Amino acid sequence: MAIPENQLVTWSHQGAVQSSAATHKSVTNCIDRVNWKEDVRYVTYLQGSYPNYTNIYGNSDVDLVVEFRSIFSKNLSALTETQREAFDRNYSDAQYTLASFKISVIEQLKSCFGETNIVVGNKAILVKGDNNRLDCDVIVCNPYRKYLSYLPSTENYIEGIIFRTEHESPNRDIINYPKVHLKNGSFKNQHENTWGNFKPAVRVLKNIKAAMVRNGYINKTLAPSYFLECLVYNSDNSNFKQNTFQDISTSIINQFYRDSINGNMENYLVQNEQGKLFGSEDLQWNIIDAREFVTQIIRFWNEYGK
């Protein structure tokens, strides 16, 4: 048997967003109450499934970025020597550090929500939820510029974020590109590319994964939400240009099966297209886990309702 179309249509719908917006507002309002100096600039925004419109019912936490914009980090490796000299002439060392800004944010969160409700993890600060807000992982970071070329009048770079791990020795830098991820997902979802079916299909696959976990087919850690969204991003646009979610889903899954056999899956990119999906880095997936997920989703699909 296959998963019925009416179930897939239900699974294609976006989950609730009011609770994520309320959580964003609550945490941001807390940080805004600090009497910051005039030259301390920052922005807050959600990353992950909520701003990407790929959240499903049952999502229980949000990821909030606090981006400290008084400073930025950079990668100048692609610049010529002349361009690097021009960059050095126009920029001086920053007055502030991300570490000191993060300390201030942590102290303010403890002041607002209580010390027992704040857990400083290796990568994020957990603000525990209550009846009015969800659990919130707060990433304190600063902008990261991956320069492609540089002229004083024209700076050409890919914008990301960077932060350091907290509980490792030595600490490591983590670089991500949430704005590029968001932009690429929106572009793939456009009607001329996938008939607007990319994001609904991501939600379908996420709901299938959740059902697989509930029914004991896989462990929930096998296919994290971010990696699953990136996996679907690598599905050919033609797979989405169909009239039923049964056809869309089977086309996507069949491509994953073929690519896991012929080796093409190893070339899949993360959605921001700044690196490969599979590998040993923090923001990469284990391809063995991905192949197991594909095997089990085929089994789940064929056994559904039996």
Explain the overall architecture:
The chain has 306 residues and is an alpha+beta fold. The protein has two domains: 18-176, Beta Polymerase, domain 2; 183-303, no CATH class. Helix content is 41%, strand content 18%. Strands 1, 2, 3, 4, 5, 6, 7 and 8 form an eight-stranded mixed sheet that branches. A hairpin with a 4-residue loop joins strand 4 and strand 5. Helix 1 packs across helix 7 (198-214), helix 7 packs across helix 8 (225-233) and helix 9 crosses helix 10. The chain is globular and about 65 Å long. The relative contact order is 0.13.
User: Per CATH, what is the topology of the largest domain?
Assistant: Beta Polymerase, domain 2
CATH C-level class of the largest domain is: Alpha Beta
Largest sheet: 8 strands, mixed
The helix tally amounts to 10
Task: Give the DSSP E fraction (strand runs of 2 or more residues).
Answer: 15-25%
Which regions have little confidence, pLDDT < 50, spanning 5+ residues? Answer: none
Give the ordered list of helices and strands: HHEEEHHEEEEEHHHHHH
Helix percent band: 40-55%
Output the radius of gyration: 21 Å
* N- to C-terminal distance: 7 Å
The number of strands is 8
> Which class best fits the helix and strand makeup?
alpha+beta
Average pLDDT: 95
Mass-distribution shape: globular
CATH architecture of the largest domain: 2-Layer Sandwich
* Total number of domains: 2
